[in-house]
């Protein structure tokens, strides 16, 4: 697995390459599209602006021609054309309207300039102007000089306001095309420079995007190899940062689960070791007594009876140990459900007081009960609850001094509080966290015959009843176990 991970990690550079190429392609396509759109828009704007300007000049020039024609002042007209051609470099062409009563005279018609136009185009525009008496405009092509021109025409009015002819103005757009070409060249160069700058600045941005992904990928592979200490070291306020946080959270959870698994495995091993140890002693004792009886080493009837009594006691101890183990195993099974019904805890404690009375009398221990006046009902298993409290009371009697008092207190309000307090030897602070562990036994002489399973069983019964258990103790002053449960009314309401 380790070699595979190390081999795969360098491939993460593909992500940077693909992201960078995608970014470059998008920027390039955008720049080209924008450049083409701008150039075409610029070209169309230039043509439109020049056409409108030329149209206005054609109308003004047609008015001048009309004034000179009606006053028969050819010299003024010719001088004006010469002046106009010198200023604007425009070519003009004037045609007479053959259908007019007084068409333009030959002195006012003809071409002024060097423009060569498509005669069919000019003829078509002439007919349209005479017919509509409105200015016209368009583009033509000079085949002789191989250039495109803009054409604008306007009617020339003669005597009594009739259309005496048509005047056309021509503009060679090659010069404008050169300007457009020059502008296009500047746009292309500017776009290329902008692209180069964008590509250069894109490297750190793409790297900032792909580096966290590569780090997260590397962390995931490390976690897959079983090393749960790996972290992404990615801190960002975006989706990648959230993904990195989720990956680090997963690493922490995997680490916790691994620690719990190891603890559970160690507990399992300790459990078997403890069970083996607990069973070995009685089995060894029973074997020794049995062999003595079988071999005839012991023949005295009184001794034989003692041996049988001891073997019976060891059998009872083993039976109790196995029973406790089965009970604890059942309680710790998450699928095991306790059959619950309404239980009056006051009745449970009255029953326990009678059962523990015999044990308490032997040590002259008094059991003091302080019960609430109303019934204290909760949902639970009567026998299991009795078993749980009996473990606590039995321990209280076992570790209490002769002539002391055990206090049992039961309160029922928004929650049920059941406590058992003794005036015994107490529990050291450092031991309290471990008293509910399986096979944990203090080194006190009172606990010499204990199995170390009673408190573990009591705690699991409490958990199965959705309860909480608390322990308060002071060395030499006694111990108090407090159980907290939900009343039956609240359980039903939930």
- Beta strand %: 15-25%
Structural class: alpha+beta
What radius of gyration results from the CA coordinates?
55 Å
CATH second-level architecture of the largest domain: 2-Layer Sandwich
Produce the secondary structure layout.
Blueprint: H1 2-8, H2 13-70, H3 74-88, E1 91-96, E2 110-112, H4 119-132, E3 136-142, E4 147-157, E5 163-172, H5 174-224, H6 239-294, H7 301-332, E6 341-344, H8 345-362, E7 366-371, E8 377-380, H9 382-398, E9 405-412, E10 416-421, H10 454-464, E11 468-474, E12 478-485, H11 488-493
Parallel strand pairs: 7-9
Antiparallel strand pairs: 1-2, 1-5, 3-4, 4-5, 6-8, 9-10, 10-12, 11-12
Keywords:
alpha+beta, 3 domains, 12 strands, 494 residues, five-stranded antiparallel sheet, 11 helices, disordered N terminus, five-stranded mixed sheet, Beta-Lactamase, Helix Hairpins, Heat Shock Protein 90
Write a concise synopsis of the structure shown.
The protein is built from eleven helices and twelve strands. By secondary structure, the protein is α+β, with helices and mostly antiparallel strands. The relative contact order is 0.06.
Describe the protein in words.
This protein has 494 residues and is an alpha+beta fold. It folds into three domains: 25-180, PAS domain (Beta-Lactamase, 2-Layer Sandwich), CATH 3.30.450.20; 239-331, Orthogonal Bundle (Helix Hairpins), CATH 1.10.287.130; 337-493, Histidine kinase-like ATPase, C-terminal domain (Heat Shock Protein 90), CATH 3.30.565. The protein is 58% helix and 16% strand. The chain has helices at 2-8, 13-70, 74-88, 119-132, 174-224, 239-294, 301-332, 345-362, 382-398, 454-464, 488-493, and strands at 91-96, 110-112, 136-142, 147-157, 163-172, 341-344, 366-371, 377-380, 405-412, 416-421, 468-474, 478-485. It has a five-stranded antiparallel β-sheet. Strands 7-9-10-12-11 form a five-stranded mixed β-sheet, with helices on one face. A hairpin with a 3-residue loop joins β11 and β12. α2 packs antiparallel against α5, α7 packs parallel to α10 and α8 (345-362) packs parallel to α9 (382-398). The longest helix is centred in the N-terminal third of the chain and has 58 residues, at 13-70. The protein is rod-shaped, with a radius of gyration of 55 Å. The two termini are 50 Å apart. Residues 1-12 have low confidence and may be disordered.
């Amino acid at each position: 697995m380790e070699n595979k991970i190390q081999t795969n990690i360098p491939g993460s550079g593909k992500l940077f390459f693909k992201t960078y190429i995608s970014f470059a392609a998008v920027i390039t396509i955008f720049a080209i599209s924008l450049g083409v759109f701008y150039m075409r828009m610029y070209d169309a704007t230039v043509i439109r602006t020049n056409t409108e300007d030329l149209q206005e000049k054609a109308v003004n020039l047609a008015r001048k021609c009309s004034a000179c024609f009606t006053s028969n002042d050819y010299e003024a007209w010719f001088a004006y054309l010469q002046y106009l051609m010198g200023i604007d470099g425009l070519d003009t062409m004037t045609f007479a309207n053959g259908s007019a009563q007084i068409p333009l005279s030959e002195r006012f018609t003809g071409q002024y300039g060097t423009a060569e136009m498509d005669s069919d185009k000019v003829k078509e525009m002439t007919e349209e102007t005479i017919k509509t008496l409105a200015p016209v405009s368009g583009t033509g092509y000079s085949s002789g000089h191989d250039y495109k021109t803009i054409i604008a025409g306007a009617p020339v009015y003669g005597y009594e306001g009739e259309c005496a002819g048509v005047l056309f103005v021509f503009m060679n757009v090659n010069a404008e095309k050169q300007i457009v070409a020059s502008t296009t060249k500047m746009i292309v160069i500017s776009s290329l420079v902008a692209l180069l700058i964008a590509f250069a600045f894109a490297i750190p941005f793409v790297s900032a995007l792909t580096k966290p992904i590569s780090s997260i990928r590397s962390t995931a592979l490390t976690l897959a190899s079983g090393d749960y200490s790996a972290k992404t070291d990615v801190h960002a306020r975006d989706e990648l940062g959230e993904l990195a946080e989720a990956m680090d959270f997963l690493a922490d959870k995997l680490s916790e689960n691994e620690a719990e698994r190891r603890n559970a495995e160690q507990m399992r091993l300790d459990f078997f070791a403890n069970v083996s140890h607990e069973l070995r002693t009685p089995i060894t004792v029973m074997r020794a007594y049995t062999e003595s009886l079988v071999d005839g080493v012991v023949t005295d009837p009184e001794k034989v009876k003692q041996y049988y009594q001891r073997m019976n006691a060891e059998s009872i101890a083993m039976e109790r140990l196995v029973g406790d183990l089965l009970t604890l195993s059942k309680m710790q099974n998450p699928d095991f459900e306790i059959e619950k019904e309404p239980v009056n805890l006051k009745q449970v404690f009255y029953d326990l007081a009678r059962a523990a009375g015999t044990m308490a009398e032997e040590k002259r221990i008094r059991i003091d009960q302080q019960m609430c006046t109303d019934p204290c009902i909760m949902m639970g298993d009567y026998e299991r609850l009795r078993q749980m409290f009996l473990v606590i009371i039995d321990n209280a009697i076992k570790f209490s001094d002769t002539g002391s008092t055990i206090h049992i207190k039961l309160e029922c309000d928004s929650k049920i509080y059941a406590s058992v307090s003794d005036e015994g030897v107490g529990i050291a602070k450092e031991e309290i966290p471990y008293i509910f562990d399986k096979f944990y036994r203090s080194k006190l002489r009172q606990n010499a015959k204990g199995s170390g399973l009673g408190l573990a069983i009591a705690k699991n019964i409490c958990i199965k009843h959705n309860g909480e258990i608390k322990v308060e103790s002071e060395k030499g002053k006694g111990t108090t176990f407090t159980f907290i449960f939900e009343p039956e009314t609240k359980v039903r309401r939930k």
